[in-house]
Amino acid sequence: MSHNLYQRIQDALFAAPEREILTLLDGRAIQAAELDQRVAHAAFVLQAAGVKPGDRVSVQIEKSWMNVVLYLAVLRVGGVYLPLNTAYTDAEIEYFLTDAEPKVHVCAESRRLHAESLQSEVDGLQVFVLGDETGSFYQAFLDAQQTHQSADAVVARDADDLASILYTSGTTGKPKGAMITHGNLSSNASMLTEAWGYSASDTLLHALPLFHVHGLFVALNLALVNGGAVSLLPKFDPDLVLDALPHATVMMGVPTYYTRLLQDPRFDRSVSGHMRLFISGSAPLLVETSDAFFERTGQRILERYGMTETGMSCSNPLDGERRAGAVGPPLPGVSVRVVGENDDVLPAGEIGSLEVKGAHVFKGYWKLPEKTAAEFKGDWFITGDMATLSKDGYVSIVGRGKDLIISGGLNIYPKEIEDVLNDQPGVIESAVVGVPHPDFGEGIVAILVGETALDMAALEAVCREKLAGFKVPRRWEQLDVLPRNTMGKVQKNLLRLEYEDTFATA
Ligand code: MLC
Ligand code: AMP
Fold first, then answer.
1. What separation in Å is there between the alpha carbon of 328 and the centre of ligand 2?
2. pTM of the full predicted structure?
């Protein structure tokens, strides 16, 4: 039996071939059988480009129906899908492509020249352009469609074969490619189907980007394996969401989506009352947001918890108490434990490091066996999050063991920004911290020590050149020295306290 996730999706598409599975902003809709046909044509293009099972296909494009087709086509041919945030700079892309060595890279026209310049570094790399129904990939797809050229049957894959690589930054330097298998994706889709009662009669309001776990594997996969319709929005925008809500039954988002909706007086029970489920994740949902949402809509947002390496691990229940400030019990098939500094499993209520185990846990980091080994204790994966487990089995995320900022649901590792800053002339050292931000949850502050007075505008410009825009600090400070503890470690907690009101009125 093949474990290719696309086989499962195709079975669901064929179960109701005429269902309008993807509805688009311009009013067009793609039926289920038609979606499979388009995937077969795109898969033909990939195979013609020489993509074989196990080959990586990297993708940095705007969200569109063709983005969905391309993702599914990569699965169908047994390739490994490597999605990249459109905000990543050329410098960031160079790192990902030279590390992952894709056979094919698909990007916007504006990124083509840079991608082509990497062909000398990445053996056999082919570059295609895909815009909004434009570009060489789209043209090849249309040619395949017009000449009726489709890929053969879905390529058989084992549960342990790679389906995707998602890069996730680290506290100790460069981003690492998390290797995610067909078995991981399938297990996630099954447990979420069960936990959230997901079915073909659901319509998902899809406003998330398609380059992270949340939008791709939680949202899109869950809908498609169930043959449920997806209302595909190009991005989160309250106007678009309000227009799409009447046709949806389920919405997923990061907490910023819900705080922004709450700022809009049009968002009330009249537009939300029919919804079966609002789900939040990727960052902590504040109790105030959860309560304000409940007051406005009469519905409690269902908060869940996960990460790139594991997909989803915990979720508040569909039926039963959705506890504000907690992420709920482990999902079906997932084991969790909270451990102390001596690796002892802690009793209920005590704060410790959260570890998870199950078929959803990834295979390891691409080409980094030692880093992989360091993040596991046997089968237990060390999440890097600090948590408590209540007597009745609910997990609460109470902090992070890793130095990480989460802004608008995007992970930012201070080390990556500090490395850029520390390389600049005149900078002696730097500390980057996240402090409360009313819109993004956390906002970034850079604190520097310099040989003389530093030119912050110039430093900001360097960050903009090297790092995606969401990683660029929004406040810049210079100190004579950074606060340190007796071990010489920078006391970021003191810096966070010092600058905690920075964005209070943002
Ligand atoms: C954009 N900007 C951000 C930002 N997003 N700044 C901080 N944090 C963010 N998240 C900046 C841009 O750099 C730009 O600034 C300015 O905001 C406008 O950009 P934009 O793209 O027009 O912004 P907007 O559309 O408002 O986007 C904000 C957002 C978006 C919250 C809607 O970031 C978003 O959709 N986030 C979801 C991310 C996500 O999918 N996370 C899941 C990860 S998976 P400038 O100055 O550069 O021009 C995961 C696992 C799990 O965590 O459990 O799910
Ligand atoms: P990523 O590595 O981008 O997949 O992000 C995963 C991290 O996001 C987790 O390790 C947590 O720190 C955080 N996260 C995800 N969901 C939640 C949640 N519901 N509450 C708190 N933190 C969360």
1. 14
2. 0.95
